[in-house]
Amino acid sequence: MGGSYAEGKKGDQDWFLVEGLTGPIPTNATSAAVELYLRQGMTGMAWFDDVTVVEEYPPPLDCVILQPNYRGRLAAGASGQRMRVRARVGHVLKGGLEPEQASLKIAIVSGSHEVVARTFAGTQVGDNDLTLEAGTLPAGDYQVRIELLAPDRTRVAAQDLDVHTLPPKAPSPTVFIDEHNRTLINGKPFFPLGWYFGPGPTDPKFRDHMIDWRPAHSTRSCATA
After folding, report:
1. Are 82 and 132 within 8 A, CB to CB?
2. Where in the chain is the domain with CATH 2.60.40.2550?
3. What is the distance between the alpha carbons of residues 138 and 164, in angstroms, rounded to a whole number?
4. What pLDDT, on the 0 to 100 scale, is given for residue 177?
5. Is the dihedral of CA 23, 28, 33, 39 positive or negative?
6. Which pLDDT band, with edges at 50, 70 and 90, does 8 fall under?
7. How far apart are CA 171 and CA 111, in angstroms?
8. CATH code for residues 61-165
9. Model confidence over 167-186: pLDDT tens digits?
10. Is 95 helix (H, G, I), strand (E, B) or coil?
11. What is the pTM of this model?
């Protein structure tokens, strides 16, 4: 029904660790097997020791911002700002808590101050889409804080995501993604054939990354979003 193939090493080696992680195991699976082998075409001798199988649980909470959809940027001075976050809740929570017993809280935070917050009951395993009307936020940096709460309101897990309200008359970036999920370059729609992911312009490694990247892709144009 599925499996995982761990990465190994070639050539003469001292003892080293090999780890593999499968996807979620279906509830109707009846058995599992671990096989130790050399890949096809390889010769020599291999020794294996201390083979273990352990259960790995997904994180209790994993979140991503859906709106605003471009680097968490909100337009300056716009009324009716809305935050949409997708919160993925794991199927195993500490203390034996059932996900359906928990609730999700989403808040916009400035420093230690909650600007606005909302709590959602009826949490389910997997994806939970949360919406929060943010009103009109002054220009500045904020965090969207998502908390998974037990029935007694104690925190089971939490995650902060960065959002930014731009100052008035802030120039639009050369490349960005609009509210319709279209890529725009110099204000015009552009259809990319693919995306290459790497560090952004604010990352100290960005310039070195672009220098390393361009020689191997000298026939392709690139734009930074």
Report:
1. yes
2. 61-165
3. 10
4. 81
5. negative
6. confident
7. 26
8. 2.60.40.2550
9. 878 787 888 887 778 888 88
10. helix
11. 0.66
Q: Which tokens is 201 given?
A: 């312009």
Q: Is the pLDDT of residue 120 over 70?
A: yes
- In this prediction, residue 95 has a pLDDT band, given cuts at 50, 70 and 90, of confident
Backbone dihedral region of 139: left (phi > 0), alpha (psi from -120 to 50 degrees) or beta? beta
**Residue 186 vs residues 56, 71, 72, 144, 224: alpha-carbon distances, Å:** 46, 18, 20, 29, 12
CB 87 within 8 A of CB 103: no
The rounded mean pLDDT for the chain is 82
C-alpha distances in Å from residue 157, one per residue of 52, 58, 96, 106, 112: 28, 12, 14, 12, 18
**Which tokens hold the place of 63?**
């979140």
Q: Say what the pLDDT of residue 96 is.
A: 82
DSSP for residue 211: H
Contacts of 158 (CB under 8 A, 6+ apart): 61, 145, 146, 147, 148
- Coil, strand or helix at 126: strand
DSSP label of 94: G
- CA 53, CA 81: separation in Å to the nearest integer? 48
The whole-number average pLDDT for the span 44-73 is 87
User: CA of 43: how far to CAs of 10, 35, 189, in Å?
Assistant: 10, 17, 54
Question: What pLDDT shows up at residue 100?
Answer: 92
In which residue are the tokens 């080696």 written? 13
